[in-house]
Amino acid sequence: MNRFLLITFGCMALLACNNSQKSGPTTGEPGSIFFTEFDTPFGTPPFDRIVFADYRPAFLAGMKEQTAEIEAIANNTEAPTFENTIVAMDNSGRLLSRVSRVFYGLKSSETNDSIQALAGELSPLLSEHNDNIYLNEKLFNRIKTIHDDTTGLNLTTEQYRLMDEYYKSFVRSGIMLEETEKERLREINKQLSALTLKFGNNLLKETNNYQLVIDNEADLAGLPEGVIAAAANAAKAAGEEGKWVFGLQKPSWLPFLQYSQKRELREKLYKAMYMRGDNDNENEKKKIINDIVNLRIEKAQLLGYDTHADFVLEENMAKTPENVYKLLNEVWAYALAQAKKEAAELQKLIDAEGGNFQLASWDWWYYAEKLRQQKYALNEEELKPYFKMENVREGVFTVANKLYGLNFKKLDNIPVYHPEVEVYEVTDADGSHLAIFYTDYFPRPGKNAGAWMSSFRGQQVLDGKNIRPLVYNVGNFTRPTETTPSLLTLDEVETVFHEFGHALHGMLSNVTYAGLSGTSVPRDFVELPSQIMEHWAFQPEVLKLYARHYQTGEVIPDELIAKIDAASKFNMGFNTTEFVAAALLDMDYHTQREIKERNVREFEKQSMAKIGLIDEIIPRYRSTYFSHIFSGGYSAGYYAYLWSEVLDADAFQAFAEKGIFDQETARLFREYVLSKGNTEDPMELYKKFRGAEPDPVYLLKNRGFIE
Each residue of 466-480: pLDDT tens digit? Predict the structure, then answer.
């Protein structure tokens, strides 16, 4: 329910603004540009006028303004009502929300040393400000009065939900604690805020600091021309012209592992990737991890919970650690058995080629790509020309149009924080304005790894006006080169659809209150809108709409579509095993009960040994670069992708049975999932859409584990 500490998705993150050197002039005192709603088309952030000097005074003014608003609510001499207490609180902090959404946006997608330093300075101030609100007893007593006697209030379902969410937020923030306990909680919150920020900053530095520089053309053996060209461009940008540079962003290291014939170089690059934060240097993160885990244990127990996972899951659909472990372990049994079969197949391939070595983790992608070509005659380099980034983006727009009647118009008059960002107006089938949508798709040194969605402004109804959201998708997809546009891999195509599903959840929100709008839902429900969108990406009917050869305009042929479908469950044992291993590692950290010094390497090793993870596979995220759980919002929550897959696999079955563009099914999904935010219990919303709770069998079928 915190209005300014915003939730983000995918690989986490929010946005801040441009380098001060690149920003245009501002007017008035520093920070004043944030003091009122932006006087721009659609109220979009005026990135051409915001300068770095605006942030700090705007944050300070925002905290001061909200403090006054909260005090006015708490000291109101009138009897507490839903309007003068709950709604007033929900509407407080608008200046702070405005500057936070912009600043933390760019902190993730276009950061620099100044932004990171200011974030560190602001961290304890914002933590204290948040605690001052949620530990305000006079304010809580007003909320409690309403909560304890709602019989005469005649609240709607949404109003009751908002009131109950605020009540629980105060309780879960420690309002019931003794004063000495509250003071300790305040200190824990400050320390956690600083440590999670430091984890993210160190990971970005460690990612940017490594380069595999190749100066011998023979060492490029096996690499496709597009990969070589991208590496040459990276070398030029790094001052290594005439050479080839590979880094630790996924669009760089992954194709190298898939295609490079130089095993020793594959090993070198892969180890650099998975040793990030574990090199005993200035970007070391093992102590940070141990401190975060211990502080989370202490906080949970201070609040009356056995573990951090118990605290987190109480508000999720899963409810308990036992339920999470049950799902993960059930899927693990299928996944590990399949992964062992896949490893044996890859070893046979190595042996057949005369390789005198045991399959290792840095070999998996290379031999899996070879095996895929052998089994399905499917070469991803043959496919990529049909997946030009702009065409894929048009593909998700087309799907949204055919499902929900949405239209997207490119705008060239909206200021952006980087030249690569593009902006669209989103309108409904009747032509009414719905949202502004930003896309930012290519890796940069100032951008966090991964992909995510968030918003510069959320949806709400204020003073009778439906305020529409400003939503963005950020990714790290294959860059264009001097000779070719951005051509996406199948995994990248799927990610575009995934993040756009989150965007739809934000854009189609239609609730009254800011605290319940858009993606403000339980962690293990928020991935339903994103993951169900993935199902449309490679449907033959959909591919025919957007997959066109970037040079000839030829629609992807049926032969290639058949190959994509045939290979859709290839390597699924590996994919599921590396994911579930990471989810179990997350749970193992956050079901700890004892505050102690842990050897992070040893803890991770024992966690993986306990479940029998084979040596040929490592968890998708090792501890020291597991930013989802140590600098994002997914602690004790990485399992959510799998939990949501139970929902999305079952939900897509409704479309599969009636037609993937069935209008009535789409209407129900929009009405009860995409537009409702957190206004009702998520399972109740799901049942209103589907008519029943989800059947887990479709998840297993989706992954090819059962027929």
Answer: 999 999 999 999 999
Claim to verify: residue 113 and residue 232 sit in the same structural domain: no
Query: How many residues are given for the chain?
Result: 707
Q: Looking at the structure, do residues 42 and 163 belong to the same domain, yes or no?
A: yes
Note the pLDDT tens digit of each residue in 673-699. Answer: 999 999 999 999 999 999 999 999 999
| Secondary element (H or E) of residue 311 | helix 308-313
- Annotation marks residue 380 as catalytic: no
Catalytic residue among 492, 494, 499, 527: 499
Residues 404 and 513 placed together within one structural domain of the fold = yes
- 645 domain residue, yes or no: no
Q: Give the separation between CA 98 and CA 92, rounded to whole angstroms.
A: 12
- Across 67-77, b (16+ Cβ under 10 Å) vs e yields bebbeebbebe
* Amino acid in position 297: I
Structure tokens at 513: 């209150």
Q: How far apart are CA 9 and CA 502, in angstroms?
A: 8
CB neighbour list of residue 1: distance below 8 Å, 6 or more residues apart:
165, 166, 169, 515
Residue type, 187: E
Same domain, 141 and 253: no
Residue 16 pLDDT exceeds 80 = no
Report pLDDT for 540: 97
Which residue range(s) make up the domain with 247? 210-274
- Grade residue 21 by pLDDT with cuts at 50, 70 and 90: very low
**Would you say residue 535 lies in a domain?**
yes
Which residues, including other chains, have CB under 8 Å from residue 256's CB and lie 6 or more apart? Answer: 212, 223, 227, 246, 265, 266, 269
Closest by Cα among 96, 155, 89 to 514: 89
| Element spanning 455, H or E | strand 452-457
Class of residue 279 by CB neighbours under 10 A (exposed 0-12, middle 13-18, buried 19+): middle
The string of pLDDT tens digits covering residues 213-236 is 999 999 999 999 999 999 999 999
Considering the domain architecture, whether residues 269 and 399 belong to the same structural domain is answered as no
